[in-house]
Automatic annotation (TrEMBL):
Protein name: Beta-lactamase
Documented EC number(s): 3.5.2.6
Record's signal peptide: 1-30
Segments forming domain Beta-lactamase class A catalytic: 57-270
Gene it is expressed from: bla
Keywords for this protein: Antibiotic resistance, Hydrolase, Signal
Family in the record: Belongs to the class-A beta-lactamase family.
Keyword Cell division recorded: no
Signal as UniProt keyword: yes
A single GO BP: response to antibiotic
Top enzyme category: hydrolase
GO molecular function: beta-lactamase activity
A Pfam family that the UniProt record links to this protein: Beta-lactamase2
Taxonomic source organism: Mycolicibacterium hodleri
SUPFAM superfamilies: beta-lactamase/transpeptidase-like
Amino acid sequence: MGSAISRRGLLIGVGAVASLAACASLPAKADPAEPLPVLGDQFAALERRYDAFIGTWAADLDGGRSVANRADDPFAMCSTFKAYAAGRVLQKDQTGALHLTDAVTIEAVDLVANSPITEPRVGQNMTIGELCEAALQRSDNTAGNWLLRIIGGPSAVTTFARTLGDDRTRLDRWETDLNSAVPGDPRDTSSPRALGAGYQRLLTGDVLDAPRRAQLERWMRGNQTSSLRAGLPAGWTSADKTGGGAYGSTNDVGVVYGPDGRRLLLSIMTRSRTDDPEAHDLRSLVAEVTTLVLPYLSAG
């Protein structure tokens, strides 16, 4: 059992439109003489129908095909930061700076909204590993804040992003302030391409050693808040992390795995085009984007 750490010591059912259904019927290997579907018009149609902006960076990790739509535009990160925070925790565990079995005490003063795992544990100890699991699988916000304390605060996520080659991601605030997602506010933002590439390096690269990379993947395969899974065909699964905030901000980023071993990176970041901070979430849109891009990526 690890040592205790004090708080102060750490300062779809989606109905696809006909065009999407047509794309889903593409063969696994496209005839090179047959033109590939043009996705730009379909992204535009989805943006009109949902009155939303769709940022997407998707790639076949074992081939050369990729899809981009507003891939370099800024979007609010929301809870997608939690995969970076957990990755940094695992890196520190790898160097012996901490251990996943180290424990923290959950106090009532720690609690913020959407904390389904930590709230019942007030007055009790939770291990750092349990906090990672809660943050990644249930998007528990109090657990997310604890991970930030453990690694050195929001700026530590920005620093870690740079080590991944991600020059766009920046985290400035804590849960739940970071979800304000005010259009034009540069704080707590990233881009689909930058964040997706960072996730790719965490889940498939050498940032973590094999056991800790496998641990991160297991946690993320257990994600219970996934939006993109509603758009995956039968037999596919994912290791992904969601995020949601004001102005309809709805994200999902991760690696999806086909039954044949195919690995595809999906980084989808969306928000409403309206000026309403209470705009409805866009989870069904994320699923439809998944349905749209998968056949194109799989055709190569």
